[in-house]
């Protein structure tokens, strides 16, 4: 039996400019009906853009499907925070203060040869991708788009320093980039 039409106070419409994209996050329920021969899954959702400048607000919504594949884009939305002063949404100054207060302090030995650098700096300055049974390294895209994406270490690939004159520069890193 299907329920009747919901009351107007149970439904809220939100303008599109006040919403942000969501993604499925955690599998909450998974069941299989042998009678219908269908799998039913319930996923929690979270904002797709959660980085420092992300505006999506998780509101406890969920997504149900019998055929959806993880990683597939959802056509559902979450709310978007437009007020930077809300305490739940850290602003840039608050984030920097937290890093200064809680961030690690790194001390290097005076003879340390391998210093820090950002991953993109390391890729841009000659890091090479090697494949098992192949003696020639492949230059890595600065964003890492040409790296293998299987999600596990299968022992087929590894990253190494460049073999040309850039080896020492890359080995010594760039402390400004991380």
Can you tell me about this structure?
By secondary structure, the chain is α+β, with helices and mostly antiparallel strands. 13% of the residues lie in helices and 25% in strands. The chain has helices spanning 92-102, 119-124, 167-172, and strands spanning 19-33, 38-47, 56-57, 62-65, 77-80, 128-131, 138-139, 157-160. The strands form 2 sheets. A 5-stranded antiparallel β-sheet has the order 3-5-1-2-4, with no helix packed on it. The termini are far apart. The model has no long low-confidence stretch (mean pLDDT 79).
Descriptive key words:
alpha+beta, five-stranded antiparallel beta sheet, 25% strand, 3 helices, 178 residues
Q: How do the helices and strands line up, and which of them pair or pack?
A:
Layout: E1 19-33, E2 38-47, E3 56-57, E4 62-65, E5 77-80, H1 92-102, H2 119-124, E6 128-131, E7 138-139, E8 157-160, H3 167-172
Antiparallel strand pairs: 1-2, 1-5, 2-4, 3-5, 6-7, 6-8
Short synopsis of the structure:
The protein is of the alpha+beta class and 178 residues long. Helix content is 13%, strand content 25%.
| Rg (C-alpha, Å) | 24 Å
- Specify the structural class: alpha+beta
Number of strands: 8
Order of helices and strands: EEEEEHHEEEH
Main beta sheet: 5 strands, antiparallel
State the helix count. Answer: 3
Order of strands across the widest beta sheet?
A: 3-5-1-2-4
For the record, give the distance between the C-alpha atoms at the N and C termini, rounded to a whole number.
59 Å
The geometry reads as flat
Helical fraction equals 10-25%
Percent strand: 25-35%
Mean pLDDT over all positions? 79
